[in-house]
UniProtKB/TrEMBL annotation:
Location(s) in or outside the cell: Cytoplasm
Any one annotated GO CC term: cytosol
Protein name according to UniProt: Chemotaxis protein CheW
Keyword Transport annotated: no
Record domain CheW-like: where: 8-148
PROSITE patterns named in the record: CHEW (PS50851)
Length: 157
């Protein structure tokens, strides 16, 4: 699960805090409408709880909180993106998920160095398409316990 994307790769585009981000379709299991997670005591504040998704207990984290962005109310457009992570699934709460794009080699650039160390960890590349700039989010960096932004091995335990 690396952020390195290739030409011809399909990406899911989603919104957080008014900005567009993308993740490879290969990392996404599904996109679900909002359903309120059941809170689990003793977990990090960005972990909203767990949902029962087709018989699988799936931890759900608030990507806004995880990335230190301001909180926002859940709306009709809010979605939970189910990410494959190691041998499990993890849900990300995002503001919207409404587009699939195909990326071409001439549109891929390395992300510039950020002023915040956290952003350098989870954004490695940017896609420029027409009037759009999409940050390619690295699911492993966001979820990996060894990254600067850590999630426990068992975020739902």
């Amino acid at each position: 699960m690396t952020a390195e994307i290739k030409t011809g790769e399909k990406m899911i585009v989603f919104m957080i805090n008014g900005k567009e981000y993308a993740i490879s379709v290969s990392q996404v299991k599904s996109i679900e409408k909002w359903q309120k997670p059941t809170r689990v005591p003793g977990v990090e504040p960005y972990i909203r709880g767990v949902i029962n998704l087709r018989g699988v207990i799936t931890p759900v984290l608030d990507l806004r909180k995880r990335l230190n962005l301001p909180e926002q109310e859940i709306t009709e457009e809010s979605r939970i993106i189910i990410i494959s992570y190691r041998d499990a699934e993890v849900g990300w709460i995002v503001d919207e998920a409404n587009d699939v794009i195909t990326v071409h080699e001439n549109e891929i650039e390395s992300a510039p160095e950020s002023q915040t160390k956290e952003a350098d960890v989870w954004i490695k590349q940017i896609v420029k398409q027409e009037n759009r700039l999409l940050n390619i989010i690295d699911a492993q960096a966001v979820l990996d316990k060894d990254s600067a932004l850590s999630v426990p091995d068992q975020p739902y335990a």
